[in-house]
Queue: 2 jobs
Job 1
Amino acid sequence: MSLADGRPRPDTPARGRPRSEAVERAILEGVMKLMEEGVPLAELSIERIARTAGVGKATIYRRWSGKEELFLDVVRAAEPPEPELPGTSMRDDLLVLLENLRQRGLASRSSALLHNVHAQMKSNPRIWAAYHENVIAPRRDLVLDVLRRGQLNGELRPDVDVDLANDLFVGPVLVRSVLRPDADLPEGLAEDIVDTVLAGLRPVSSTVPQH
């Protein structure tokens, strides 16, 4: 799997020399290569990763504190990139977020590497906790922010619990992705979910948008 078109890592304080995207890409692809060869996370030493990527161990440690932090960036690189929200309406933003979630579900099914990455991550409590804090929690917060803006704009009833609403929107995709891996994740699923849930959560006076 190539990272040539991957997104840059989130901004973090620099360690040592300025970052080189080409070097970081080589390191991440080195980890992916080893995992594609079936090397488990427990055996992915920094020395082995450095040898595969063609860099020195110091080069890796200038960028990551250890293999757990490095592995978290491997997960980010293997998953579809985070979407940009149009910001035109709550509905439009929800459609983009749920479509991205659907794409991640499809990627997890079709990519043996990504499936292995997720399995390895869940088997390591430290990595799973870091993934939840740095990836899952911000994604959930983003949906909650969209829902709160929707309440302020009159697109969502003010009495609706946004935490519950979040689960109503993302739950169907997660159920099909995780609990029902044989279930379809068809195009148009995001729109079906958003419009079905909004039919019950819109203010009574609101009219259904034409689209």
Note: Residues 1-18 have pLDDT under 50 and may be disordered.
Job 2
Amino acid sequence: MRVIAGKARRLVLKTIEGQDTRPTTDRIKETLFNMIQGDMPDCCFLDLFSGSGAIGIEALSRGARQAVMVEQSPGAAECIRENLKTTRLEDGAIVMNCDVMAGLGRLEGKGYVFDFIFMDPPYNQDWEKRVLQYLADSRLIDEDTTMIVEASLETSFDFLENLGYRMIREKNYKTNKHAFIARKER
């Protein structure tokens, strides 16, 4: 796994051993960032269920002003910190070693409004729905925020409208997909 483009281009990232994380492949990461590259410069990026930090680090490498990475596993959070040192992108990064819901609560009221929120939760456990329910009434997002969920191909997003969201785009890959979500226009 490596950084695809930007300041830290081609640098190799560490991952943690075991089945607790599913790193986004370089090919899928490249496709994702090619779709959002025009909005990367100077954005504020939130990476939930961050794993090795590869997505947040890619955002920083491509010009994000700040990336907040939330990861519950202490081993994975340490891996993120090591990857930030390797890429020399620590200045724009905040690593939160806590549960995602607790992390969202801690970020509230601190002036954050994220341009992008990326989440790659454990598949088929309804985490995406829980996070989106929380964010529906949160000050962490506004009408310009794009939320990107990496999910299994079977994951249904039929609940979006009831929560006040709309599907902007869905990109399917061989084994998973990215759902691009925003608040409904008022």
Note: The chain has six helices and seven strands.
